[in-house]
């Protein structure tokens, strides 16, 4: 039964990691059109999350953890709109480096990873329940 409980812990760490990734994607999408509050200032910068493999010393299992949260240093988008309050002296507004299509792909991947881990949790739970039922007989 220890292997099944280890499986639950591993899958739970995967679900947490994908949940954190999904929250970051939601933040990026929410700020996709956020501009600076000052003319010519820097807008919201896309955030990314990096995962790492961590050995759990208690179980000996490899767990997924967040290595770090960082920002995407790709270039901002500029659009000419001299009437915009955030426009610089040349009339250009700097927009975040968030691409909603990329964010949607990340969201889909995070959702699939979460669902896969959830399926493992459900299967492990069913197997534990069956094992306990057999031991009671």
Would you give an account of this structure?
- This protein is of the alpha+beta class.
- The chain has helices at 2-30, 100-136, and strands spanning 47-55, 62-71, 77-80, 92-95.
- Strand 1 (47-55) and strand 2 form a beta hairpin.
- The model has no long low-confidence stretch (mean pLDDT 92).
Attribute tags:
two-stranded antiparallel sheet, about 20% strand, two-stranded antiparallel ribbon, about 50% helix, about 140 residues, 2 helices, elongated, alpha+beta
Architecture blueprint of SSEs:
Layout: H1 2-30, E1 47-55, E2 62-71, E3 77-80, E4 92-95, H2 100-136
Antiparallel strand pairs: 1-2, 3-4
Give me the strand/helix succession: HEEEEH
Strand arrangement across the biggest beta sheet: 1-2
Helix content: 40-55%
Helix count from the secondary structure assignment:
2
Rounded Rg:
22 Å
- Which secondary-structure class do the elements indicate? alpha+beta
C-alpha termini separation: 17 Å
Number of strands: 4
Number of domains: 1
Q: Judging from the principal axes of the Cα atoms, what is the shape?
A: elongated
Strand-residue fraction?
15-25%
Give the rounded overall mean pLDDT: 92
The poorly predicted ranges are none
Largest sheet: 2 strands, antiparallel
